[in-house]
Amino acid sequence: MSENDKLEKIVEARLKLKARFEEKMLQTPSVSDEKPMGTGPVNRHGMPQLPVGQIKTTKWPVLDLGFKPDISLLNWKLTINGEVETPKELSWQDFMNLPQTKDISDFHCVTTWSRMDVPWVGVRFSDLAALVTPKTTATHILCYGYDKYTTNISIEEALKDDVLLVHTADNKPLEKDHGGPVRMITPQLYAWKGAKWINRIEFLNKNKLGFWELRGYSNTAYPWRNDRYS
User: DSSP letter at 176?
Assistant: First the structure.
């Protein structure tokens, strides 16, 4: 199969997957909320640019569990399994051979700072999902990091076009402090929903709490509802 054929197959599978969840995606609060809380001009999702309780910053504070794993590109792997038809384990080269997406989006941390207009390069979560074909029973994902961190996300949030597994930020390779070589970003949710140093995505047939969710953080994490804690 040629590279063009592979790309067409991934795009076709992604579009079919999105069609399955399109209605749920349109009903998520970060798209459909009629009374979002925040200030500033309307962003591309129809929400105020700066969510309630947030402060703009140009800095990128470093937050983690106190352990920063040092993962070489040679040793990095991404496992995608669970409620899927075709589980995969991707090497760095496999990951880089997938369609690469450039995007600019905002980064909202639950600790009240927001970093605006960050340029990213990475692979859409929806393209990764298209590789493994989630079963009809799949409702959520649980993301795992090399630092033993976990976080849960509903599939309708994860499939949004701006949810990426990024290897580049600010036009340079993602630094280890911020989750390099690869982390997930979730621009329409608080940033703890994007695992740093990501190494596994598990599709689930029911919701399962992650590290911070087990410790009182919100399951859903919508910035424009001040949805920080359960």
Answer: G
Asked whether the beta carbons of 130 and 14 are under 8 A apart, the reply is yes
pLDDT reported for residue 20: 87
Which fold, 3-225?
Sulfite Oxidase; Chain A, domain 2 (3.90.420)
CA 176, 181, 182, 185 torsion-angle sign: positive
CA neighbor of 171 nearest in space, from 104, 89, 91: 104
- Where residue 53 falls (left for φ over 0; alpha for ψ -120 to 50; beta otherwise) is left
Contact 208, 143 (CB under 8 A): no
Residue whose C-alpha is closest to residue 101's, from 47, 150, 166: 166
Closest CA to 217 of 177, 196, 189: 189
| Three-class SS state of 212 | coil
With a cut of 70, which residues of the chain have pLDDT below it?
1-3
pLDDT in tens, 115-138: 999 999 999 999 999 999 999 999
Contact 194, 128 (CB under 8 A): no
* Residue 1 confidence (pLDDT): 63
Note whether 59 and 110 are within 8 A (CB): no
Q: What is the pLDDT of residue 5?
A: 73
Domain boundaries, the chain: 3-225
Q: What's the pTM? A: 0.94
Please tell me the predicted confidence (pLDDT) of residue 2.
Answer: 67
